[in-house]
Design a protein that fits this description.
Helicase, Ruva Protein, domain 3; RNA-binding; elongated; 10% strand; three-stranded antiparallel beta sheet; three-stranded parallel beta sheet; Rossmann fold; 20 helices
RNA sequence: GGCCCGUUCGUCUAGGGGUUAGGACGCGUCCCUUUCACGGACGAAACACGGGUUCGAUUCCCGUACGGGCUACCA
């Protein structure tokens, strides 16, 4: 029988979760939901020196905002495999048990080398023109460890509490094969793998040991992670093997990376594309740096995850705008690409625009009201709702609305020079003053009727240039449909604006 | 440098031994329009290169180039 699908997202709380991490979480989530399985959040906080305050909370909040909610784990209600924080699991002695088992089986050993000694070893190897200096089956023989020291000596050192690590004893020359769901078979020779540290001198496990122990204990069925883990996968295979768990290990799937838009390297915390790299605002109190989030930039979480899902995956047909349910339904690892995908800021904006257009005017107004308030703009809901109807076609984000239509809230003080230079002449003042008077006599102030009034005025006064009227009333050359705009602003306001504009014109 | 992974329009991608190599973003032109948009139509734009295998290769194999990842008592 197939194992129940149980996958985990296991970030380390070393900073804000950036969008590459969000995508890894998303793919795990999609796979779990597709198969009716479990999605777990585990916190890999084994590096105490890199722990950042607030990072864990950020991760939880970011996943919540994205709608990528674990059904088990830190911040989402503990489950049967608690605790889900590795620091807490370490306190329970979980990892040491496995490390001891490896040592007892002759597959791991104690190493007492100091940082200086390790440094010296690397320098020595470099000087000897060794291509890849590492702690391995060859170099370990020149170091101070339980393979080179006598049993008595080792015991003495351990009893004296000498700082030491536990390392994996990787064989000298052995072919390691493993299957990746996305990439197929991968073969690496063990000579390329170093003797990885399993237990650090502070007693904490490294990622390599910890994730294996936890994946086994938590009955994880698939380890889905970024491609940056591919090179260490052979070492992981060895650990499972030496633990006698090779048949119980999760299936592996290494996701392609998200690359920078300009093409060089994987996405970093900061990018010049102008779009955020983080789901939510993030302030790093260590460095004092802050980063804007997708949420605060006016993105919808549906748009964000839709975009992310299509970066490296596709449903096999031409669909692009998909609900989360549709994505889940269509999701398979077979349709995940092998190659890295460059992040495309333009298309990302387009995704949000598509979702923006799906909202009705009442929903948009409800979203816009607090933004207006924060800008100190007072406007009533009815006005704002109509404003949304007019302006939404031009926007990608709700928080562009105000800037795109400031003149709906503040009368213009200046007027587009280009349009005036091209279209305003010595007769204009007389013509548009007459138009102003005609409008002033008009009581049926609707878009439709204003359209008729303009046509009649054009016939009577000579051509009324609609763009000129637009500039007189709004100050700018572009904007929503003119008559809708006049209708919304209202007769009183339009009169005021025309009077002011005409007083400024020659 | 070494090891691993990858390579279809500028970008995200579909496809796959014989196709006019399809879609989307962006870009351009036109239509609609007395303004501004939306919208519609059309267009430019890709199989990295070299060898095989084959009647035939963009598709399979091998090299090369290029790109990416890893190379810590970080994850």
């Amino acid at each position: 029988m197939e194992k129940r699908v149980r996958v985990r997202f296991a970030p380390s709380p070393t900073g804000g979760l950036h969008m590459g991490g969000v995508r890894t979480a998303l793919f795990n989530y999609l796979f779990a939901k597709k198969h009716g399985g479990d999605f777990i959040l585990r916190i890999e906080d084994t590096d105490q020196t890199r722990y950042v305050n607030g990072a864990e909370e950020y991760i939880v909040n970011a996943l919540k905002w994205c709608g990528i909610e674990p059904n088990e784990g830190v911040g989402f209600g503990d489950g049967p495999h608690k605790p889900y924080r590795q620091s807490e699991r370490k306190a329970l002695g979980i990892y040491k048990k496995y490390a001891d088992q490896l040592i007892a089986g002759g597959h791991a050993y104690y190493a007492f080398d100091t940082e200086e000694e390790l440094d010296a070893m690397r320098k020595r190897l470099e000087a000897a023109k060794v291509v890849a200096p590492q702690y391995n089956s060859v170099s370990r023989q020149t170091m101070r460890n339980s393979l080179t020291l006598s049993e008595d000596e080792v015991k003495k050192l351990l009893d004296a509490g000498t700082p030491h690590v536990v390392r994996l004893k990787v064989p000298r020359n052995e072919e390691i094969r493993f299957h990746d769901i996305i990439r197929g078979w991968v073969v690496v020779n063990s000579s390329q793998v170093d003797d990885k540290v399993l237990l650090k001198s502070d007693g904490m496990p490294t990622y390599h040991l910890a994730h294996i122990v936890d994946d086994i204990e938590m009955q994880i069925s698939h380890a889905v992670r970024g491609e940056e883990w591919l090179p260490s996968a052979p070492a992981h295979i060895l650990i499972y093997r030496y633990l006698g768990l090779e048949n119980d290990m999760p299936k592996l799937a290494h996701l392609p990376l998200i690359l920078r838009p300009d093409g060089q390297g994987k996405l970093s915390k900061r990018d010049k594309s102008g779009l955020p790299m983080f789901p939510l605002n993030w302030f790093d109190e260590r460095t004092g740096e802050s980063y804007v989030g997708y949420r605060e930039s006016g993105f919808y979480p549906e748009a964000f995850i839709n975009m992310l899902a299509l970066l490296g995956w596709n449903p096999g047909d031409n669909r692009e705008i998909m609900t989360k349910a549709e994505i889940i339904e269509a999701f398979t690892f077979e349709r995940v690409n092998k190659s890295g995908a460059k992040f495309d800021p333009e298309k990302t904006k387009w995704f949000n625009q598509q979702y923006l257009r799906q909202r009705n005017d009442n929903e948009l107004a409800a979203e816009l009201m607090p933004i207006l308030e924060s800008k100190g703009v007072k406007a009533d809901l009815k006005f704002v709702t109509e404003f949304c109807r007019l302006i939404k076609e031009k926007a990608h984000f709700i928080n562009e609305f105000y800037d795109l239509g400031v003149y709906f809230f503040t009368a213009p003080a200046s007027f587009d020079e280009k349009v005036l230079a091209k279209k305003w002449n010595e007769n204009s003042k007389a013509t548009y003053s007459k138009l102003r008077d005609k409008l002033n006599g008009e009581n049926n102030w609707t878009a439709d009727n204003l359209h008729h009034v303009f046509e009649a005025a054009s016939a009577e006064l000579g051509k009324i240039d609609m763009q000129l009227v637009r500039v007189l009333v709004s100050g700018v050359a572009g904007g929503p449909q003119l008559f809708d705009m006049l209708a919304l602003l209202g007769k009183e306001e339009i009169m005021k604006r025309l009077d002011y504009a005409l007083s400024q014109m020659k």
